[in-house]
Specification:
Layout (H helix, E strand, L loop, with lengths): L3 H9 L3 H23 L2 H17 L10 H20 L18 H20 L2 H12 L4 H8 L3 H19 L14
Helix pairs in contact: 1-2, 2-3, 2-4, 3-4, 4-6, 4-7, 6-8, 7-8
Pfam family, one: Sigma70_r2
Keywords: DNA-binding, Sigma factor, Transcription, Transcription regulation
Protein name: RNA polymerase sigma factor
């Protein structure tokens, strides 16, 4: 399997198949990130396509000293935030679109599903700046430095936003049913 930089080199040399490989490599992650940001399956699919089109059109601006995935997440985050601002509406999610972790009993499965729905609802209620930073950190598992690169902000700002987002999310999640708390890793 070729590295990202090798595929980009091939793309610069005119090999269009190289970009197809890049899309195949990242489409699932970008879609999952955008879905958690926007809360609608169809919107996330549309935004994913738009992100890859934007990335293709601006591939000449990619600087190899940064990870390609960070550059791509930056495009996705900025495009999604622009779209949310443009729409000025609250995203909605349905219970059918939350993930289940398969446990031993139906009761445990129901509890996990309820916790995921609660967490997703509260994530979608957060300001976009807080939502994007939590998703990049816990879902995409980017480092503070990588998040700073994606969002074009200093690492200290990343730390502050994560702290504030945790605080707001924690305030919302204190009364979770069943006595357990929901963690970002469970989304």
């Amino acid at each position: 399997m070729l590295e990202d930089w090798e595929l980009i080199e091939q793309l610069h040399q005119g090999n269009k198949q190289a970009y197809t490989q890049i899309v195949e490599r990242y489409k699932g992650k970008i879609y999952a990130f955008l879905y958690r940001m926007i809360g609608h399956t169809q919107d996330a699919q549309d935004l994913t396509q738009e992100v890859f089109i934007k990335a293709y059109c601006s591939i000449g601006g990619y600087r190899p000293e940064f990870r390609f995935s960070s550059w791509l997440y930056r495009i996705a985050a900025n495009h999604c935030l622009d779209e949310l601002r443009r729409r000025k509406r609250s995203p909605i999610t349905t219970g059918d679109e939350t993930k289940l972790i398969h446990d031993n009993t139906p009761e445990q499965m129901l509890l996990v599903k309820e916790q995921h729905a609660i967490l997703q609802r509260h994530l979608l209620a957060l300001e976009e700046d807080h939502r994007v930073i939590l998703l990049l950190r816990y879902e995409e598992q980017l480092s503070y430095k990588e998040i700073g690169e994606v969002l074009s902000i200093p690492v200290t700002t990343v730390q502050m936003r994560i702290y504030r987002a945790h605080k707001k999310l924690h305030q919302c999640l204190i009364p979770v049913k069943g006595g357990g708390s929901v963690e970002m890793r469970e989304v």
